[in-house]
Amino acid sequence: RLLIIDFGSQVTQLIARRLRELGVYCEIHPFQNVDDAFLDAFAPRAVIFSGGPASVLDEGSPRPPARVFDMGVPILGICYGQQVMMQMLGGRVERGEGTAEFGRAFVQPKEPLDILEGWFDTDREQVWMSHGDHVAEIAPGFRVYATSPGAPFAITADTERHFYAVQFHPEVHHTPRGARLYENFVRMAGFTGDWTMASYREEAVQRIREQVGDAKVICALSGGVDSSVAAALIHEAVGDQLTCVFVDHGLLRLNEAEEVVGMFRDHMNLSVIHAEEQELFLGELEGVSDPETKRKIIGRLFIDVFQKYADQIEGARFLAQGTLYPDVIESVSFSGGPSVTIKSHHNVGGLPEKMGLKLVEPLRELFKDEVRALGVELGLPRHFIGRHPFPGPGLAIRCPGEITREKLDILRKADAVYIDQIRRHGLYDDIWQAFVAILPVRTVGVMGDGRTYDYACALRAVTSVDGMTADYYPFSHDFLGETATRIINEVKGINRVTYDITSKPPGTIEWE
Ligand code: XMP
Fold first, then answer.
1. Each residue of 174-185: pLDDT tens digit?
2. Active-site residues (predicted)?
3. Residue 464 annotated as lining a ligand binding site
C-alpha cells in the first residue's frame, strides 16, 4: 500500500482518488501522526508528500520523519512536499517574494524521465501551480527534468533513489496529464493496480469478523446508501449477529418505509426492526415552525427511539455506522477558529458512548462512489444504490412552517410525481438531488370553472459533487411546464408550482 503524508493541502483527497482509480490502495495520514514507529508499522511501498499551506522557512513547519528517506521506497513530493523534500535533503528554499505562481503554467522538458512517460508530445505541458516559496537550489543527487517560466525546478528527481519532486499539483483537473504521472509513479514503485472492490470486500469481511467476534451488532438503517451498504457488508461478515433498526419518523417519502424494510428483509435476508414511531415524532413536532427547533426535536427523539429498540437486543456490543473516508480524514488545520453552525445535522454521533457500544465502521476507507460500487458487489439493486441523498430529518425540512399530516401527504404525492417525471426523462442520474418543498402559503387559482385556494410548492433540483456547493439544474421549459401540469392535475391540494433557481451558496440545498 501507498502512504500519503498530508501537509494540509485542500486537494490531498484528490491524490487518493487518482490512485484508487488506478487500482492502488492508499491511505492519507496527517503529518502529525507519522513518526518512525508509524512508518515501520505501515511499511509503505511508496510515499507521497502532499502540498500544504505552510512555509518550510517558518520555524516548526511540518515535516516528515527523516527516516522516510532511508526506507528505500520511492517518494513523490508535491508543491510543499517538494520543498520539504529539497530542504531536508540538502537543497535550499527561498521566500517567494515576487516569484509566487498561481494557476495555469506550462512546463517544458529538459530530459526524459520515467514518471513523465506520455508527457510532452508537444514541447510543453499544462500544469496547475500554487506556490509562494520556491526551490532555489536542488538537493545533491537531484537533476532538473522540466522547467516553467516561474519555476526553474518544476520537476526534479533523484533517479537513483527514486525521489521525485514537482512544484505543481498533478492531482487536479487543470493538470490534464497529471493522472498519467501518478500512473507512471505507481507502476515504477511496483504496484500492479489489482486493488478492486472484490478484494476490498473480502478484506473488509475478514476485518469485521476479527473485530466483532461472536458479539451482536446493531445498525441504524436509514435506507441511505451508506448505512445500507454498511449493513449489507456486516451481514455478509457476521450474518444474524446483526440487527438493523429502521426508525420510521413519519417524515419519509411515499412508500419508502415499506420499500426499504421489504428490500432488506426479503431480498437481503437481514433482520430488521421497523420502529413505527410516527405518532411520537409528529406529535412532538406539532405547532413547531422554527427550523433549528425541528431539527433538535427530531435528533433527540431519534436517539431515544433508537436506544429503546437497541436495548431490546440482548448482548449488543457494537454499533455499525456508515462513516465514509471524507468524514474520517483529519483535516490539518492551521487557522483554527470556530465555524458557524448553519444547520445542526442529524446523526447518531453521541450514541456509542451513551450506550457503551463500540463502533464498527467498515466504510471508513471508502469514497462515496466506491461505496456505491461495493453496494453493487454485495447485491444491492442498482436503482437503490443510485438514489439521491435524503436528509435525516426527512420531509420536516421540506415543509417550512408548521408540519401537519395533511401537508406531509400532499408533499409526498407531489414529490413522487416530480421524481417520476425526472426518471421518465432520463435525468435522474444527472442530478445530485431533487425534491419538492411544500410552501406555507395558499394561493388562489382557477380549475375548470371553480376557484381553488391551495398550497404552492417549489421544485428543487441541483447539481453538486459533494453537497457543499451546488447549482440549480437547468431543466428545459417544456419539462418544467409538463411537470407543473402533472403535479397540479394529479395532486389534490396544490394549485401552484414554482422552480427554485438558487445556487448554494447563498442558498442551501434543503429549504431549512
Ligand atoms: P444543505 O441543505 O445544508 O444540505 O445544503 C446539504 C446536503 O446535506 C443533506 N442534509 C442532511 N443530511 N442530516 C443528513 O443526513 C441532516 O440533518 C441534513 N440536512 C441536510 C441535504 O439533503 C443535502 O444533500
1. 899 999 999 999
2. 79, 169, 171
3. no
